[in-house]
Design goal:
CATH topology of the largest domain: UDP-n-acetylglucosamine1-carboxyvinyl-transferase, Chain
Number of helices: 12
Number of strands: 24
Distance between the termini: 23 Å
Number of domains: 2
Bound molecules: shikimate-3-phosphate
CATH architecture of the largest domain: Alpha-beta prism
Radius of gyration: 21 Å
Length: about 425
Amino acid sequence: MNTVFPNKKGLRGTIAIPADKSLSHRAVMLLSLAKGKAVIKNFSSAEDPKSTLNLFANLGVDYKYINEKTLEINSCEGLRCADIPLDCGNSGTTMRLASGILCAQNFNSVLTGDESLSKRPMKRIIEPLELMGARITSENGCAPLYIRGGKLHSVNYISKLASAQVKSAVLLAGIQTDGETIFTESYKSRNHTELMLKYLDADIETADNKTVVRKSQLIPKDIEIAGDISSAAFFIAAALIVPNSDIVIKNVGLNPTRTGVIDVVKQMGGNLEIIDMREISGEPVGDLRVCYSPDMKGAEIKGDIIPRLIDEIPVIAVLASQAEGKTVVRDAQDLRNKESDRISALCNELKKTGIEIKELSDGFEIIGKNKISGGCELDSHKDHRLAMSFYVAGLAAEEEINIKDFDCINISLPEFLPLISSLMY
Ligand code: S3P
């Protein structure tokens, strides 16, 4: 349980946003396939990327921390069979991407997860991987996954889902087959796997929503991880809705496949400025200045922007509650398959604070701008993104809000409380 008190003075100061979770997973996985030594700078300290690191350590990859956030990966020996089930913890990215790698190995693996992960749909990766010749047994499409390793063949797969996890599973299997694997998606999902594969010299081409990979031996190279825009989103939203706020967020990954939240903030009339664009290990990065914005307007959020802000939707809901008029989110039905059913949990919990929100099958509608009353307890449903979104609501509320199971934030951002406290004075 954590209690958040209304903030009347405003958030002020500068923070550096911690490492991106998606990139941290991929750096470990791709360097594990690269056969050699390389350093990951600014590796995430969150639980999900650590699940990936432990998993690959159990597959024979050596690693050592050079300092708190710098990690050397040594994959000279290649991957070998783990004699225990591989625990993916709470991390869907770990389970789905690792499946793509493991089904092409010459050994068997078992992937398990916690209670939440064991309920999440895995058919979405099993189906395309089976088309490549993979042999995966599941519990009705859910974990544990029993993977019989073996030789795969390439596939030309058109995905109904815009999912980076599905795409990455297929591409990571694809670079281990002899043919040419083609993956096409309806809307473009985050392209970190493609960019990192390219950075490590894989044979890969992308055009619009289509990616082509061929058999590749990755070359180990040092990777620096950019800050996580999905973590930055909580601070962006807080600064926009807490009166008198003016903050700078440094080192934010600004890959266009992730910046939907910035587009929405601008569309709503939020005061957000990008101040210094640069590139780190093939990924765009910048600093953001965000100020209190009392005159924001509601927005319509649907279609191809959804995969570009899928993880930010809970905190966008809080933001929308403080914008004039109606905000509608549609085409986001996959939110029901995240760490919790984020549509129903978000709607039910936010209603308790006086926010006017109506659940839809594939999203929700919010009517702003109402005061956030507070004086209540919200259940995070052990979902890190809900917990931090509710904290942001609490900062702008009339009275304190208690958040149940708040420690689930360690899944993606253990630094959340010290960072937010550093902006209070
Ligand atoms: C992720 C992709 C997204 C996102 C998840 C991380 C990734 O999921 O919601 O938090 O690192 O590839 P989907 O690809 O299933 O949409």
